[in-house]
Design goal:
The protein is mainly beta. It contains four helices and 37 strands. The strands form seven sheets. The protein has an eleven-stranded mixed β-sheet. A ten-stranded mixed β-sheet has the order 7-9-12-15-18-23-26-29-32-35, with no helix packed on it. It has a six-stranded parallel β-sheet with strand order 10-13-16-21-24-27, with no helix packed on it. The radius of gyration is 21 Å and the shape is globular.
């Protein structure tokens, strides 16, 4: 998918890309052109990627990327077709390269191009409340509703039969058909991604988007961050309760039910038909299988296979939890 929200300044000659990104290297690559930076799975032989943890060993061994930023200890896992750029700090180097491709993706300033919806082509095409603002190139399907004081920033796409509540901000977001987004949601802002430093924390760019599939519902006051390199995805017919936070790069499956005040750290994947009770927490970089039930207040800190029922902190098999808490 071509990113409709961030302009790619590439392609770059790989040598120039590394110089602009202030990355030291010892080899000349004969002016090979690189189109983009992508994750291990999505990268093609025209892209550069990164590999920083053995958690992603399988993906790294199969990546089609032309170049990969990695460490000396991990470089042997990559295929021979992938040129290895060995650095000390993979994530910092990745952030620098991403910023070279997408210099406008670090900040999240408000969209200065919005205007009153009454002054747009949607004035008589949809129903809307007071003080609704629309950015450039926004697309809204048939039979949609938008509540008071909501903002759809430039290039946002809304499908048909959608209801957008009041005080909603949509940025870097693609909404499919028959979706309900309730009041006071903030969707598509940058994630909580930075490198801690005593003098000044360093932000890294988030160039992904939020994709909300058909028939989903997002409860009041919920926040969904856009992806860093990949996208944040909410599956079909998934219902999310009020005040839920979903961090960058999470992939939520179809037909999931997520109760109020659940929090997701970044880059976890949920299967289909997952049910999560209120105030549970899901750590980052986990894989939760299909048909999993997670009890309210639980803390999930490791991946879960299909069909499990868990509860507690750390979350464990429900029967074991009940037995140990009699």
């Amino acid at each position: 998918m071509i990113n409709p929200f961030f302009k790619n300044n590439g392609p770059f000659n790989i040598d120039k890309l590394l110089i602009l990104s202030e990355i030291n290297y010892n080899k000349i690559y004969n002016k090979i052109k690189i189109n983009d930076i992508k994750d291990l799975f999505l990268a093609t032989n025209k892209d550069i990627t990164f590999f920083h943890s053995k958690k992603y060993e399988l993906l790294a061994s199969k990546t089609k990327a032309a170049f990969c930023i990695t460490t000396n200890n991990l470089s042997h896992i990559l295929p021979d077709s992938c040129n290895k750029i060995v650095v000390k700090n993979v994530l910092m180097s990745t952030a620098k390269i991403t910023k070279t491709f997408y210099p406008n993706a670090v900040t999240d300033d408000f969209d200065i191009n919005v205007k009153e919806i009454s002054k747009t082509i949607y004035n008589k095409k949809i129903k809307f409340g007071k003080n609704v603002l629309i950015g450039k190139n926004v697309k809204i399907g048939k039979n949609c509703l938008i509540g008071h004081n909501s903002i759809l920033e430039s290039n946002v796409i809304i499908g048909e039969n959608c209801s957008i509540g009041s005080n909603v901000i949509l940025r870097n977001t693609i909404v499919k058909n028959n979706v309900n987004i309730l009041d006071s949601c903030v969707i598509g802002k940058k994630g909580f991604g930075f490198f801690p430093d005593k003098k000044k924390n360093i932000r890294y760019p988030h160039i992904g988007v939020v994709i909300i599939e058909d028939n989903a519902e997002i409860g009041c006051g919920s926040t969904i961050d856009r992806g860093s390199l990949s996208n944040t995805v909410i599956g079909k017919n998934t219902y999310i309760d009020n005040q839920v936070h979903i961090a960058h790069n999470n992939k939520i499956g179809d037909n999931c039910i997520i109760a109020g005040q659940v929090g997701f750290a970044g880059s976890s994947t949920l299967g289909n038909n997952v049910m999560i009770g209120g105030q549970a927490g899901i750590s980052g970089h986990l894989k939760i299988g299909n048909n999993v039930h997670i009890g309210g207040g639980s803390g999930v800190i490791k991946s879960l296979s299909d069909n499990l029922k868990v509860m507690g902190y750390p979350a464990k098999d429900l029967k074991s939890f009940i037995k140990s808490n009699k």
